[in-house]
Structures are given as C-alpha cells and as structure tokens.
Specification:
Layout: H1 5-20, E1 25-29, E2 33-34, H2 74-77, H3 80-88, E3 91-94, E4 101-106, H4 109-118, E5 123-126, E6 131-136, E7 142-146, E8 149-152, E9 158-159, E10 169-170, H5 173-176, H6 209-224, H7 230-245, H8 253-265, H9 270-284
Parallel strand pairs: 6-10
Antiparallel strand pairs: 1-2, 1-3, 3-9, 4-6, 4-8, 5-6, 7-8
C-alpha cells in the first residue's frame, strides 16, 4: 500500500539526515524487509553484491540487494529510481557496519536484563520488543549469539528507530566474545549426518591440529565467497574436505557443523546439506 505523502516524506527526510551524518541508508518494505532485486538483478544475474563486504560491482540505480544498497549519496537517495521505493516504504533502515557501528539487538525483556549485567553501557534505542545497544566500532554480524540476542554490523541492516539515549561507547571485547564461541551442531542438522570413523584405528597422518583447522576455515571461506552455483560449490567443498580428512577420523561433529552453517548462510537447506555430504561420502567410498 502506498504511504501518505507526509509519511513517505518523513522517511525521505530521515534518510537524508542520516546520510548527511555518514550513515548509509535504505528503504524498508512492510515487515521490516528490504526491497527485492529488480528484474535486471533477479537471481543475482547482474553479479550480485549481498555477500560482498562493500557494495558493488552491480551499479543498478534502484535500491536492490538488501543491505548492500545502503548509501550516503543524497542524489541517489532522492533520485527517481528510488522514488517508488520511498512511496511504498514502511521504514528507514541503515547499514551499521558501513557507519562503523555495531548493534546488539536485544529482542526480549530477558535479553535486555542480561545485557544490563553483562555488557558495558552505551547508547540504547527502544524497539518493539526490547532494545538496540549501539557501540562505536564494526564487526561481523551473527544471529542468535544467545537467546534473543543478535549482532548487527557488517553485511546487515537495522531499522532506524531514532537516535536513542545515552553516550555511545567503543565496541567492547565482551560483545566480540559473543561470536567467538566454538560452533555447535545446528538444531536443524538431521541426525543422519555422520562423521567417518577412523579406519582400523589408524593414527591420524596430519602432523598438527592446525592443518585440519586451516582446512576447515578455507572450506568455510570457499562456500561463503561463492557468488553463483552455490549447490555445486557446497558439494565440491564437502568432497574436498572428506577426501583430505574423511578417512583418518579427525573430523568431528563440530567441524561438520561449521560447514553446514556456512552452507545454510548461503541459502542452502538442511536437507541439501545432508544430501551433499552423503553424496560426497558415497563417491569417496566412506
């Protein structure tokens, strides 16, 4: 539904004011979601940009590609290409990481209560169900670091709900530590996924654990940086990991979980992850 003129004008004014202060902005549709890619950019036919650390290479003049569309350019924000989006916009969003900020999104009263005892005080913004705690400094964005708590910074967007209250402080180690925990098996991972057993109790041929850790990290990066053919990339990556580490028994459920998490972050379903893993094992005779 098209917004009344005064409402969409308010959104545009807020966006321009934020952009003038160095905060990249974008319009949001109802439901707090970005505008979808235009026909030219559908299915990332243009090369895409939602998985890149900075906007580009797509130069579409419309507010495509979610968070990566956020900009501080006043001419772009006021352009005819963005006019339809502002007419239909339900809210203004911004890219925290692009402004050098990190938001701890506290989505429940319990999460807010936890933050008040566990995190340094900073600027707070009331939300519908909780609070945004805004820190100076950027980091990676991670959802569900604990119950009701998300981290929004790089490659993410947050709804603009006002300037908030309190003095903004530097991003503390306590927030960074929330994303540094050892990953666990995703709850959505089917129980049929298994880790190859060590054949005949043979000794692992890898000289140091660092070799395995580096291999898993490189596999995660390969999946994360895939811009097309994600299905094939996930399968080939699983195959490469299993061909190197699948017979000695050094892979653990935690390693598998890291690979599945990276694949699901690219849009793969738990079922596809399971199938790709099983197919790779079958091909290698594991």
């Amino acid at each position: 539904m098209t917004q009344p003129t005064d409402v969409r004008g308010e959104h545009l004014r807020a966006a321009l004011a934020l952009a003038a202060s160095g905060v990249p902005v974008l319009p949001l549709r109802a439901g707090k979601v970005p505008f979808g890619n235009c026909r030219r950019c559908a299915d990332n036919a243009c090369g895409g940009r939602p998985n890149m650390k900075t906007p580009g290479p797509c130069t579409c003049p419309q507010p495509c590609h979610g968070w990566a569309a956020a900009t501080t350019d006043a001419d772009t924000i006021s352009s005819a290409a963005w006019a339809r989006a502002w007419r239909e916009a339900a809210a203004v969003a911004y890219h925290p990481g692009g402004a050098g900020l990190t938001i701890v999104d506290l989505d429940t009263p319990a999460a807010v209560a936890w933050a008040r005892t566990a995190l340094p005080t900073t600027r707070t913004v009331p939300t519908t169900r909780g609070e945004h705690w805004v820190y100076r400094g950027a980091m990676g964005s991670v959802n569900a670091v604990r119950e009701g708590v998300d981290i929004k910074s790089t490659m993410a967007y947050a709804r603009w709900l006002g300037p908030g209250t309190g003095t903004m402080t530097d991003l503390p180690d306590a927030v960074r530590a929330l994303t540094a925990r050892e990953p666990s098996i995703p709850q959505s991972m089917p129980q049929t996924v298994s880790v190859p057993a060590r054949a005949g109790g043979a000794e692992c041929p890898h000289r140091t654990p660092a070799y395995l850790h580096r291999g898993i990290a490189m596999a995660e990066q390969r999946i994360t940086e895939a811009r097309s053919a994600v299905h094939a990339t996930v399968y080939r990556t699983f195959l490469a990991v299993l061909s190197t580490h699948g017979r000695c028994g050094c892979l653990t459920d935690t390693h598998v979980a890291r690979l599945f998490t990276a694949a699901q972050a690219k849009g793969e379903s738990p079922r596809h992850c399971t199938d790709a893993w099983t197919n790779a094992r079958t091909r290698l005779g594991l």
